[in-house]
Amino acid sequence: MKHKPLSKQAQKETTSLLVKKYRLQKNQTLAEGSVVVKEALNSNWVIHKIIVTQSWLKTKETHELFPLFSKRGVIFETIEDEFAKKISDLKTPPHVFAILSPPETQNVPNQGLIIALDRIADPNNLGAIARNAVFFGVQQIWLSENCVDYLNPKAIRSSMGGLFHLSITVQKSLANALVEAKKKGKKIVVADANQGTNETNLVQPNQTILVLGSESQGVTNSILEIADIRWKISPLGRDLSLNVAATSAILLDRLLSKYQ
Asked: How would you write the chain as a 3-class SS string?
């Protein structure tokens, strides 16, 4: 396949995507690793550029990804291994990257379970929750404005490309959005480590919005006040608290397993 070296200017632009300000200005992000890039190529996200290391061209992975490059009409550009180290914080950087943007218009489902995230600051947690969401068949995630930006490369990486297969909406006021959803018949279920019930028969998944907050602060009081149900996970051993991503997996399984 045809390819060319990544120019110095393009290298500078690629590096800028590690900074939130420039990601949001350009509405672009950087995906890294062959698995994540493959998910991007198989999604409706806009692929601006594929970047690979010279050494990667000698590997067997090319046989799997080259057909996808051709299908999407992508001409890839090459970099040296040293530059890969600059744009990845992994000890062993990957050899395949993509610069991409979310689609201008998203297909927002009219029904189905929604996950709403409030004050999630860690991009790895956001990505892991997105990965769990895709595993359980969830199609929508709502984010409060004070969540980490979902274009963060760490979020993209930890989602294993799951973010490419979700409808993501950043709500100006998550509390107001939840109130409006309640008017339309949605049940607001909030994960609350301090109090709540383990009862799952009170909700139907298709009519539910599952709200998760940050590990340190939880969900804001304004959202707690409008919750229909508060759920907690009771420990069977020592109560050392759960990571919010682990919490999301347990609650999604609790909510959806009986309907499989």
From this structure: CCCEECCHHHHHHHHHCCCHHHHHHHCCEEEECHHHHHHHHCCCCEEEEEEEECHHHHCCHHHHHHHHHHHHCCCCEEECHHHHHHHCCCCCCCCEEEEEECCCCCCCCCCCCEEEEECCCCHHHHHHHHHHHHHCCCCEEEEECCCCCCCCHHHHHHCCCHHHHCEEEEECCHHHHHHHHHHCCCEEEEECCCCCECCCCCCCHHHEEEEEEECCCECCHHHHCCCCEEECCCCCCCCCCCCHHHHHHHHHHHHHHHHC
